[in-house]
Amino acid sequence: MDTFLAGKNAVVTGGTRGIGLAIAEALALAGAGVAICGRTQANVESAVRQLTNKSKSKVVAKVADVRSSTEVGSFFEYLDRELGQLDIVVNNAGIGVFKSAAELSVEEWQNTLDTNLSGVFYCCREALGRIRNRGGYIINISSLAGKNAFAGGAAYNASKFGLNGLSEAMMLDHRNENVKVSYILPGSVATEFSSGSGGEQWKIAPEDVAEIVLMLLKTPARTLISRVEVRPSKPLK
Questions:
Q1: Is residue 64 domain-resident?
Q2: Active site residues
């Protein structure tokens, strides 16, 4: 097994299920210490059990809602105590409410933007204070919905379009400070986040996105892949 991340420490937000859990597992199996967060104690405890049963890496977790800058700050302080130096941040936490602009409530709009966009900023702000100049990698999990609008996607599209812009600006801000920033735009992924007809076999698997994260982390220091678009190879017709 390639433990090329031995001695490194990583954060994965929303790491208790789906894509986040798959990424956390891949990082742990590659040798990294991993800190995950989720919104319920039961979910973080379950995820830690799964991850520690599958890897020899140290895995820690804390309940934190990325919509709260205070909770994000407490989570990163917990990481400092439990793992030490930070090297990798994967911003994965996200929600989706799919309604037309006229049907969206103010609360649904705010929750989507607070989770998918502001939450990423809060985590990046904490991370940058720890990795600037010393070196590190920030990987944001966006969506093809961040470049392709669709009916019913007003809040989700806005959050992901914004996340792409944040990622690109942050990359330009800090690329000369030994910080890499990339974002991944998956299409349809087989998770509980969304469901569709025709079964799940045609969709991207969470493990596929995790493999892309590992690919990015293996990229030579001189090279930066700023964006990765990912689609099912054989989508439903």
A1: yes
A2: 156
